[in-house]
Amino acid sequence: MRQEELKAEIDQIAEQSYSQLEGEWGEWLEIAKRYELKVPSQDRLDIRHTILLELALARLDSKKLIPKFRAYRIASFMVADYWRTRKRLTSGLDCAHCSKAQRARCKKEWLYSQCPKLIKLVSLDTVTIDADGNPHTLKDTLADDHAIDLDAWLDVTTWLLGCPARLIEIANKRIDGKPLNQADRQYLSRFRRREQKRLL
């Protein structure tokens, strides 16, 4: 119930924001309102904005008033473009690049499932068999962003990239056989204690 109230409130605010439109913009708004009903409710305000924007761009290009029938044609094209884009995103079908005869044949014989441009959707719960004959679901084969890269972790140069510069200086002193002063020993001791706590 709360969602419906919020949606009604948003629609009311949107209507109020358009209530001052007059002249050409008022006519365009009436046209957009007619055509926005041809798309799902969650996208109606978006298609309204798109139609108004296209009509304004057409007005700028022609530098004169747009005839009403042309405005209707632009609005219908924007709705068709909406559905074409939605179909391409959800199913991978893009019939706009097919010939008119091919589109008619697909519609008559319902050949959409055989389209070579069709995106095949597969569930992540689909069971597959690996090379050893073991069954796995597809979601088990996805890479984990939080997994440790063991090869990089074992590589000393990778470890040194995150290592404090002061600790590297102390290590070089120890390798060269130089004695550590009191500050170096304290720093090394603190670093060791901190790393031991992380390991626990």
Please tell me about this protein's structure.
By secondary structure, the chain is an all-alpha fold. It has 2 domains: 2-94; 150-199, no CATH class. Helices cover 62% and strands 3% of the residues. It has helices spanning 2-18, 23-36, 44-62, 68-91, 100-109, 150-154, 156-161, 165-176, 182-199; strands at residues 127-129, 135-137. A two-stranded antiparallel ribbon has the order 1-2. A hairpin with a 5-residue loop joins strand 1 and strand 2. Helix 2 packs across helix 4 (68-91). The longest helix has 24 residues, at 68-91. The protein is elongated and about 90 Å long. It starts with a helix and ends with a helix. The model has no long low-confidence stretch (mean pLDDT 79).
What share of the residues does DSSP label as strand, in percent? under 5%
How would you state the average pLDDT, rounded?
79
Query: Distance between termini?
Result: 51 Å
**Fraction in helix:** 55-70%
Unreliable parts: none
* Count of the domains: 2
Rounded radius of gyration (Å): 32 Å
Counting DSSP E segments of at least 2 residues, the number of strands comes to 2
How does the major sheet shape up?
Answer: 2 strands, antiparallel
Described by the principal axes of the CA atoms, the overall outline is elongated
Specify the structural class: mainly alpha
Q: For the largest sheet, list the strands in their spatial order.
A: 1-2
Topology as a string of helices (H) and strands (E): HHHHHEEHHHH
Number of helices: 9
